Amino acid sequence: MTQAVKQPFSVVGHDEQGRERRRTNCHFCGYCCAFVATVENGRVVDLEPDPTRYPYDPQILAGCRRWRMNLDVLDAQERVNYPLRRAAGSARGAGQWERVSWDEAVGDIAERLSALREAHGPGVLASMIGGPHTSFWPLHRFMTLFGSPNNLGIGQICWNPRIWMDVLTFGWTVEADIRPETGCVFIWGTNPAESDNSIFWRTLLSIGKSPDTELVVIDPRFTRTARAADLWLAPRPGTDVTLALGLLHVIIEEDLVDHEFVDEWCYGFDELADHVKPYTPEHVERTCGVPAADVVRAARLFAGPAGEGAYPSALVSGRGIDQVGRNVAPAHRAICCLRAVTGNVDKPGACVLAEGSDFVPEVDLELTLEHMDELSARCLNTPYTPLQCYKGYERVAALTERMGRKLPARYLTSGHPDLVLHAMETGEPYPVRALVVEATNPLLTYADTHRVYNALMGLDLIVVLDYYLTPTAAIADYVLPAAGAIERPLFQAHGGVANMAYGGPSAVAPYYERKTDYEIFRALGCALGQEEEWPDATFEDAIARTLEPSGMDWETYGMLGLCTQPPAYYKHLLPDAQGAPQGFATSTGKIELASVVLDELGGQRLPAPGKPRRLCSPAFVEERTAAGWAHLPLITGARKQPYNASMYFNNEVFRKKSPYPAVEMSEATARGLGLEPGDVAVLATDKGEARFVVEITRMRDDLLAADYGWWHPEWVCEQPRLGGMWESNINCLTSCSLDEGEEMIGTWSYNDIDCMIRKDDATLSWQEGFSPEP
User: Fold this and answer.
1) Which partner for 279 in 18, 123, 197, 246 could form a disulfide, CB atoms 3.0-4.6 Å apart?
2) DSSP per position, 143-212
3) Is there a cis peptide before residue 429, judged by omega within 30 degrees of 0?
4) What is d(CA 608, CA 625) in angstroms, rounded to the nearest whole number?
5) Residue range 515-554, pLDDT digits in tens
6) How far apart are CA 498 and CA 629, in angstroms?
7) Which residues contact 82 (CB under 8 A, 6 or more apart)?
8) Residues 6+ apart with CB under 8 A from 572
9) How far apart, in Å, do the first and last CA atoms of the chain sit?
10) Within 10 Å of residue 90's Cβ, how many Cβ atoms?
11) pLDDT tens-digit profile of 172-192?
12) Residue 246: left if φ>0, alpha if ψ -120 to 50, beta else—which one?
């Protein structure tokens, strides 16, 4: 009798033509939606949403414009399919490449890195990453074992500020727990209609239609999310701290405080109450431009009524807060205080403390803790950003680990770009001469493009892992072909601050000679003598090992697409070893409205607004004003579908529907500037210029909002144009200088920039669809 052959768990069946249908996932945003891929001869020929796995709703993908790109990009003509090396004797960006084998590429890169480390020490190597489009811990393990602390990312302007301030206030991070009983939801500085497009956005849409839940949106732009709101507040950029303190003023003045919770579980309430007395609704109106009556209404909505009609409230903040420069830490701290004084902490329908992961946390995968002393000794951030450094991490991690929670280290200690670029430029305090770039395009997405470009052009070695020849890849020494979604397994785990991971298996082996990020860094690590620290031959094996502590195996994870547990509430009431309530993982064991750790580090014990630095010098403003320019505040960095940062501009369908990089403004602002829709405007700071097409929209007057990340992937990516990256690149105007940043983390500003603007008679190269190169 013939024994049936067991199918791989990734196979869910066959179609009418006998082709396998396999589980897999998208990765064109951080949600990694589940697919079923139809596979024929090792190639994916069709995709459809998989409602049996996360996020369980095919309507989410029905509203997404990106997911069908997966089929197109698998075999796209412009994909990098083989290791490329800059031809001997050719200049950076000259477009002269030679194809080499993986063995030759890995061997040469390892040899050059080894020589640079011998000459200058382990800090000679830096890395740059972007958003959550791959698993970054293999790179960070490689960096740890190499001995370098100089990993860079966008953490200081995305994610890190909220994580740090949540942890310092509550002892861990908090997430919104929106349920039917939630009476009010604040959406502050984020636009899920564009940035999320998944379960959360659909939840907000349902709230907007519900008479039982009030939705308050705080954003200077009248976004699609604001359209769904019951109340829209449009503060001046950079005044969020004042607005939050004003809301606290109303809540305390009108005695809307949850006194039972505050008396038992909050530290520093009396200090906070005195601190917010000057922040009256009238003061908020003068500072923020938000009507005093709306400030009072919003505060009352969030606090909710007392007694029988009481309800929980939830608050979600986003990059609009993360990117306010000097005011980022106090803004997040004031928002934390709002949650606390109203008792909206760790209870159903409010804001729930996340759990530490049941699976191996990211910090253990990085191996950072085992090498903490040597990495700390080389950390450039110390003493410039006393929280965002290894010493700051150790101080805070000692508190969270009392309750078994481990913070991710590499994100929360990531090098400050100003300091690492300075080391590249000057060799001080030690030389940084090599760079690995993964899942980002820093010539478009890092602040101060001209400075980043000049620093990178002077390096001895640049290695880029990417799908395409981006402007950054164009100036590299090596471009290594990375396997994309469907070609690699996925394990998206929120950096280790939540007990949730989602993803699944690859549908096919990587096409051509592409490799997963894990395989690439493991190969480089082994070539540099790190073999013992890379025990798993494949990324699937590494994920299986990561899952072991949770009790879930790789096959179960792949079939479910999710590893998580439902939230637990009131965790501060759980008994400790002595039987008393365990409280919160802070210095006082309570929610710290007045921060002990920030006070120790020289920061603000209580949140207070700071005065932002301006990018335009007085002389620059005077000169440009005399030449007919106007001086206005600028915000940028917002996500706008279908694009994300510098990605997806190579999709011609997208470009036909969204063809131009825009600078948005209100009708009154445009009229005052003498601009009409469709005009070309040039924006400038002391750092540089960029050009955009004028769009009129509903937003605050006397404010500009410029698109982010635009370039021409359809052009040849060579010097001097480098794919048109200089034409409409807003980061030509920005700065990451520590002098302009927040004092604890080093956050620079994208949402409170001053710039000069005027109409430009030049014609932009953008047109509907792909544009011919001039």
Assistant:
1) 246
2) HHHHT---EE-SGGGTTHHHHHHHHHHHSS-EEE---TT--EEEEES--HHHHT-SHHHHHHHHHHT-SS
3) yes
4) 33
5) 999 999 999 999 999 999 999 999 999 999 999 999 999 9
6) 48
7) 99, 100, 481, 512, 513
8) 265, 346, 581, 582, 583, 584
9) 70
10) 12
11) 999 999 999 999 999 999 999
12) alpha
- Per-residue exposure over 121-159, b if at least 16 CB sit within 10 Å of its own CB, e if not: ebbbbbbbbbbbbbbbbbbbbbbbbbbbbbbbbbbbbbb
Q: How far apart are CA 52 and CA 21, in angstroms?
A: 14
Amino acid at site 564: T
- DSSP reduced 3-state for 575: strand
**In sequence order, what E strands does 265-343 have?**
266-267, 313-317
Using alpha carbons, select from 295, 284, 279, 343 the residue that is nearest to residue 315: 343
- The answer to whether 760 and 684 are in contact (CB under 8 A) is no
**732/686 Cα distance (integer angstroms):** 10
Q: Which helix (H) or strand (E) holds 14?
A: strand 11-14
**Residues 202, 33 contacting (CB under 8 angstroms):** no
The Cα–Cα gap between 706 and 708 comes to 7
- The answer to whether the beta carbons of residues 14 and 58 sit under 8 Å apart is no
Contact by Cβ (8 Å): 248, 255: no
pLDDT (tens digit, 9 = 90+) per residue, 389-410?
999 999 999 999 999 999 999 9
3-state secondary structure 197-254: CCHHHHHHHHHHCCCCCEEEEECCECCHHHHCCCEEECCCCCCHHHHHHHHHHHHHHC
List strands edge to edge, sheet with 461-466. Answer: 97-99, 84-86, 478-481, 461-466, 434-438, 125-129, 151-152
Using CA atoms, how far residue 408 sits from 110, 174, 341, 498, 762, in Å, is 27, 15, 28, 11, 48
